[in-house]
Amino acid sequence: MTTKIQILLRDSQTEKTEGNHAKPVEFVPSNQVCVIDFGGTGTESPRAANGNVKQIRNTLIKYNIDVPTYSIFYEFDKKFDGDREILHDAKIASIEITQKNIKQVFNKKILNFVSDQGKKIPVEQIDKKWDKYIKIMFNKQTDKKQFEDLLQKTLIGLKYTNIEIQQIKNLIEKRTLDILDEHIIDLYNRIIMPRVSVDGKRIELTEALRQIRQITFVSHCYGSVIARKLQNETRNQMLKLDYNDIEIQEVLDQMLVVSHEPAGDLSHPSKAFINFASASDDMMINRFSWLQKFIKNNIRNDRDYMDDNHLKDIEREWFPYLRNHPSKTAIAFLPQKYGNMFLIPQGYEYEGFTLEEEHNNIGYVEPYPGRNINSVALNALARNVFIHGVENSLKQQDYFTPLPEIVDLVQGFRDDQELKKRRAIEFEEMQSIGQELVQSSFEYARENIKNMIAKRKEKYKVNIESNNTNE
Predict the structure, then answer these.
(1) Cα-flanking dihedrals φ and ψ of residue 198, to 5°?
(2) What does the pLDDT look like over 4-60, one tens digit per residue?
(3) Is 462 a domain residue?
(4) Is residue 72 within 8 Å of residue 36, measured between CB atoms?
(5) Based on the domain organization, do 299 and 324 belong to the same domain?
(6) What is 409-447 written as a DSSP string?
(7) Does one domain contain both 129 and 35?
(8) Which helix (H) or strand (E) element contains residue 177?
């Protein structure tokens, strides 16, 4: 699925001249303090992008900040339009396929959809099963080609006919989300390149740091994939400009991304990529880590059904040490290795609670009806990080001022020193909860691995006994 990325601008001038709408632009000027929003897959029109940027502008205005605000939207192939609901209804939103994990993904995930105990199944059954499962994302055309070759050989081995093979390829293609290098390079050229180079040559490191810190990124869902790929492409291009690894990491650590309900891999290349999420959001990717498996199986309820019992069970399923914690809120902070994430068990507490509302858990200015205290607190933290990030950007006019640490970004906006001390203690509590969460996932992993080994030994023993009997 080919994707074209467009950029829109909304500021005080366009709000006067464009009839309260954002206007399309070719690039983001260098040496400009601004905010850039990367929305989710629903941001596929100027109207949707304008809605995203309007919410951000309203937040900035509330804090007496007036800076240009940009939003991007995606032009997807028409063939994807009819399957838009598949992504939003998926039990597991998507899987990102790379050179490193392609065989693992295929053997553990894809093979289960095209076969049953090593035998072919009806194409209609594959289509139905896939509907409830995943989107596939590729980074490179070469990865996609390798995947297609592997799929072709597998389907032939399962004795599918040529017609059936083409049908299966078609249904997979409809569920493929390609953000290829060429799209990200284009985005890099239009946003980042003028801030780290002049006439194809690198600039002084302090100047690159200053100009990158002038931007504050906001992302939601699929937008976090774009932001992460943009950071990775920035690294690649800066290496070509003769920046060294240490310098590049310094630059990326000034590239603040306030990421809501992220899709994609959580192994971010920067400590400035800060995530905010609900564990009850099933549209986040099912990643290949024991921490994610533990969260899915022990924190979130079974989301294949939704009834009143879910609302009663969610507190029981969340960790006892969260319920008994002295804080009024139950928020865990997971360090950079595990996603640099502020995580709550659930965002909504009312009858009629839906999956989509958990996933769209954003609201800097006006809280949505039905939100619980965890959700309100989570959005307050995200808002603080966002506003403090922009305020720091405004200090970059003449010289570089580093981005504050996370503990400072999450602080409130009062000068009350006692309040700041209390906020710092609360952040330490969130870190403690996160550490316990990670430790619990380690124990979960050890137990599961132990059980898997035991099952394999038992299976091996049965096979040996069976062979001996046959002899």
Answers:
(1) -135, 125
(2) 788 888 888 777 676 667 888 999 999 999 999 998 877 878 888 888 888 898 889
(3) no
(4) yes
(5) yes
(6) HTS-S---HHHHHHHHHHHHHHHHHHHHHHHHHHHHHHH
(7) no
(8) strand 176-178
Percent of the chain with pLDDT over 90: 24
Q: Which two tokens stand for residue 87?
A: 């992504």
- Total Cβ atoms within 10 A of residue 416: 10
Residue 297 within any structural domain of the chain: yes
Asked if residue 339 and residue 301 are part of one domain, the reply reads yes
Could you tell me how far CA 183 lies from the centroid of its own chain? 18
If one counts the domains in the chain, the total is 2
358 lies in the same domain as 257:
yes
Helix (H, G, I), strand (E, B) or coil at 119: strand
Residues 337 and 342: their CA atoms lie apart, in Å, by: 13
Do 256 and 388 touch, CB atoms closer than 8 A? no
- The total number of residues written for the chain in this structure: 471
> What pTM value is reported for the model?
0.75
Instruction: Confirm whether 170 is domain-assigned.
Output: yes
Place of tokens 């976090």: 224
* pLDDT tens readout for residues 352-382: 555 556 776 666 655 566 677 778 888 888 9
Nearest to 175 by CA among 254, 109, 271, 121: 109
Structure tokens at 227: 């932001």
CA distance 279 to 39: 20
Which domain, by its residues, includes 13? 3-75+181-409
Sign of CA dihedral 22, 72, 258, 83: positive
Strand, helix or coil for residue 86: helix
